[in-house]
């Protein structure tokens, strides 16, 4: 994965979400994990990298593509990638199967038969075949998260963007979803995720970036960041969140 972000700024009302943020990834990492305090800018950065938000200023280049500041020009980039949001964003009036097939047909041009076949295969793969015709309200949080993950994956995205993929899940479901994500990364899927799961970030990420106050405070390989962080703010954060682990 190639990534170069330069002087990114974004303000919502009076809130500066991204404040002259810059990040250039060394090498060719497969997985970038964004960590840091809540409200520090992780989700905002993730949405900008995925082309879901347009910055006030600054530039983003991902895998050789410079993201446009024009809404219409961003549509092809969005179609190339997959997104998993904190709130799942499943359509409540559609079944699990329909939630997966709809974007395949409407966005990616698959026939209904093709979409149905792809969705069925993936529901089986993720242990949800018996829940295919249930609506989101009939599914557990972990099941909804897996449906949302399947929807993000079935179009074979170039990059999978994951925003707190285990938010609001119980410990058992958290492990289940994280194991699925690790399997995907091991299989070659490029992933950029924002997470509070420090152990998972350390295990699967090639590069970890600490985001706070709308800036990248420090970024490095997991062993370097967790064991030898240079910035005092990063050291304090890690000492707190890892105190009881």
Give a topology summary:
Elements: E1 3-12, E2 15-24, E3 31-35, H1 42-49, E4 57-62, E5 65-66, H2 71-80, E6 82-84, H3 96-106, H4 112-125, H5 141-153, E7 159-163, H6 171-186, E8 190-194, H7 198-204, E9 207-212, E10 215-220, H8 222-228, H9 232-241
Parallel strand pairs: 3-8, 3-9, 6-7, 7-8
Antiparallel strand pairs: 1-2, 1-4, 4-5, 9-10
Helix pairs in contact: 3-4, 3-5, 5-6
Summarize the structure.
The protein has 245 residues and is α/β, with parallel strands linked by helices. It contains nine helices and ten strands.
Features:
10 strands; 245 residues; alpha/beta; single chain; six-stranded mixed β-sheet; 39% helix; 9 helices; four-stranded antiparallel β-sheet
Protein model, in words:
- With 245 residues, the protein is α/β, with parallel strands linked by helices.
- It has a domain at 82-156.
- 39% of the residues lie in helices and 24% in strands.
- The chain contains nine helices and ten strands.
- The protein has helices at 42-49, 71-80, 96-106, 112-125, 141-153, 171-186, 198-204, 222-228, 232-241; strands spanning 3-12, 15-24, 31-35, 57-62, 65-66, 82-84, 159-163, 190-194, 207-212, 215-220.
- The strands form two sheets. A six-stranded mixed beta sheet has the order 6-7-8-3-9-10, with helices on both faces.
- The protein is globular.
- 35% of the residues are buried.
- The model has no long low-confidence stretch (mean pLDDT 92).
